[in-house]
């Protein structure tokens, strides 16, 4: 899911760091009797007890049975007071060995629930969203997901505090400090994983983590926290369209060539796909130019009279944007200009999550774009309706609380600290701690919110001993490449190789 629900923040570092993480402890740290005495700062009706139902889908032409559970895990402060409740949705195969793998999935934002990975990517059922032609009024009826991972692993989808039905039980200022910042986020979510394992007797299971977008920022940090602080080893990481290096993202005046370099291949891929010429071979040529002459000409600037001329001509050729427009920008084509100009003749605008998914521009005469993102605007209705219907009607977990597929409030409240190198550092350290831990980083070619070339450059800088366990896979599509059947199938096949280890 998108790493930021606010379009104006799409290219900013929506991250947070607290120098000292507030300690949180969970249900296992205090006697169960303390639950009855716990008092919230807010007067909120209690959430329902955990509820499990038995369901069946058809998978590979055969019935496939599983249990679906909606439940909660309490978050406590250092004094044992309940300060939050995390709601999760779990799909497990009854009667399985305690050694069956289990995968914990997180989405991004900050402020996104896990519904996108659940009902869009790897859960047993899905609702269509994120592809060309999807609209808010499309059916929210769930269908069996032929690409579910449930035949490979049990699945636990976790909604961070402030998303889904998960909630803080504190006043906003206290909740902001305890939940809406990078370090507390990692502390309480890693403890949530630990508590679910203890609660369900699954500490012997091979454990995997999946994070999409900002969830991809979380995943390596959660792995290291679990390894070194909670005593839980992680067999594998799946990072889906991850937001790994905020420091590489600059503005339109960036001196570093990195912001321009990481965006250009995805722009070129979008243009190639529109011409039905997108192939791995074509992209290797784009990447070679980006690492070579493009970077050289960017750094040369006006010290080389031919540099800008070369930039303008080649960038225009690769992206399909006319040379006059690219020339006004000295060859430095920014994302918003690209998305506006790519489809201007059709009076449409492209999505930052997949440049070839468009919507009509409601203000085509405006000098600047004034509308929201085509994918972001289209997916809230079907995902919210489908998830609430599933939880409240099918599972019977009844609540009158509002479900937040995307929380603008959480995103706005997030503490955007200065430390931004943590995910790559923690990825290196987690891999060094456990050489047997596999890593699959998956992207869509057309994604301009978290471009795949960032991950490519990061992996190229990894120590040689760590490069082998990590794989980068790039599929047709955008940020939610799994909305395309072919890409979802390829993603599952690549995941099977990691589970097989």
Question: Can you tag this structure with a few keywords?
Answer:
single chain, 501 residues, alpha/beta, Rossmann fold, 2 domains, 11-stranded mixed β-sheet, two-stranded antiparallel ribbon, 37% helix, Peptidase_S10
How many structural domains are formed by the residues? 2
Total helical segments: 16
CATH superfamily of the largest domain: Alpha/Beta hydrolase fold, catalytic domain
Q: Averaged pLDDT, please? A: 88
Quaternary status: single chain
SSE-based structural type: alpha/beta
Share of helical residues: 25-40%
N- and C-termini, Cα separation? 27 Å
What is the CATH class of the largest domain?
Alpha Beta
Unreliable runs, pLDDT <50, ≥5 residues? Answer: 4-38
Let me know the largest β-sheet. Answer: 11 strands, mixed
Radius of gyration: 23 Å
Structural overview:
The chain is built from 16 helices and 15 strands. It is α/β, with parallel strands linked by helices. It folds into two domains: 363 residues, Alpha/Beta hydrolase fold, catalytic domain (Rossmann fold, 3-Layer(aba) Sandwich); 125 residues, no CATH class. Helix 4 crosses helix 5 and helix 6 packs antiparallel against helix 7. The protein is globular and about 70 Å long. Pfam families: Peptidase_S10 (PF00450). Keywords: Carboxypeptidase, Glycoprotein, Hydrolase, Protease, Signal. This is Peptidase S10. It comes from Duganella dendranthematis.
Could you write a compact summary of the structure shown?
The chain has 501 residues and is an alpha/beta fold. It has two domains: 7-247 and 379-500, 3-Layer(aba) Sandwich (Rossmann fold), CATH 3.40.50.1820; 248-372, no CATH class. The chain contains 16 helices and 15 strands.
């Amino acid at each position: 899911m998108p790493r930021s629900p606010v379009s104006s923040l799409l290219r900013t570092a929506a991250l947070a760091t607290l120098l000292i993480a507030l300690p949180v402890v969970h249900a296992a740290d205090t006697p169960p009797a303390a639950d009855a005495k716990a008092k919230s700062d807010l007067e909120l009706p209690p959430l329902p007890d955990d509820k499990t139902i038995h369901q069946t889908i058809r998978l590979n032409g055969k019935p496939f049975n599983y249990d679906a559970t909606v439940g909660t895990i309490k978050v406590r402060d250092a004094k044992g007071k309940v300060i939050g409740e995390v709601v999760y949705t779990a799909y497990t195969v009854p009667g399985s060995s305690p050694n069956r793998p289990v995968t914990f999935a997180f989405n991004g934002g900050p402020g996104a629930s896990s519904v996108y990975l659940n009902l869009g990517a790897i859960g047993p059922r899905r609702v269509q969203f994120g592809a060309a032609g999807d609209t808010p009024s499309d059916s929210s009826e769930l269908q069996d997901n032929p690409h579910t991972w449930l035949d490979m692993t049990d699945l636990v989808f976790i909604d961070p505090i402030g998303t889904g039905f998960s909630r803080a039980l504190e006043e906003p200022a206290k909740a902001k400090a305890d939940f809406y910042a990078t370090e507390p986020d990692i502390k309480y979510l890693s403890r949530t994983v630990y508590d679910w394992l203890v609660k369900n007797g699954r500490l012997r299971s091979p454990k995997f983590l999946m994070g999409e977008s900002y969830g991809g920022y979380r995943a390596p940090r959660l792995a290291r926290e679990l390894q070194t602080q909670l005593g839980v080893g992680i067999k594998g990481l799946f990072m889906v369209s991850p937001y790994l290096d905020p420091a590489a993202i600059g503005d339109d005046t960036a001196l570093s060539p990195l912001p321009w370099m990481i965006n250009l291949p995805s722009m070129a891929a979008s243009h190639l796909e529109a011409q039905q010429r997108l192939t791995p071979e074509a992209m290797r040529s784009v990447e070679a130019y980006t690492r070579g002459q493009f970077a050289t000409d960017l750094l040369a600037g006006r010290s080389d009279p031919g540099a800008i001329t070369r930039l303008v001509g080649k960038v225009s050729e690769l992206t399909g944007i006319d040379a006059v427009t690219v020339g006004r920008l000295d060859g430095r084509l920014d994302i918003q200009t690209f998305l506006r100009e790519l489809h201007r003749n059709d009076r449409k605008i492209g999505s930052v999550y997949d440049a070839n998914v468009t919507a009509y521009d409601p203000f085509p005469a405006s000098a600047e774009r004034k509308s929201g993102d085509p994918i972001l605007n289209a997916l809230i209705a079907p995902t919210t309706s489908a998830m609430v219907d599933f939880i409240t009607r099918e599972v019977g977990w009844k609540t009158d609380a509002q479900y937040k597929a995307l929380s603008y409030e959480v995103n706005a409240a997030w503490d955007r600290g200065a430390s931004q190198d943590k995910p790559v550092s923690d990825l290196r350290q987690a891999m060094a701690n456990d050489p047997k831990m596999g890593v699959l980083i998956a992207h869509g070619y057309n994604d301009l919110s978290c471009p795949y070339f960032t991950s490519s450059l990061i992996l190229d800088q990894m120590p040689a001993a760590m490069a082998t366990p990590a794989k980068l896979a790039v599929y047709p599509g955008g940020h939610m490449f799994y909305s395309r059947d072919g890409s979802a199938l390829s993603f599952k096949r690549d995941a099977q190789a990691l589970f097989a280890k």
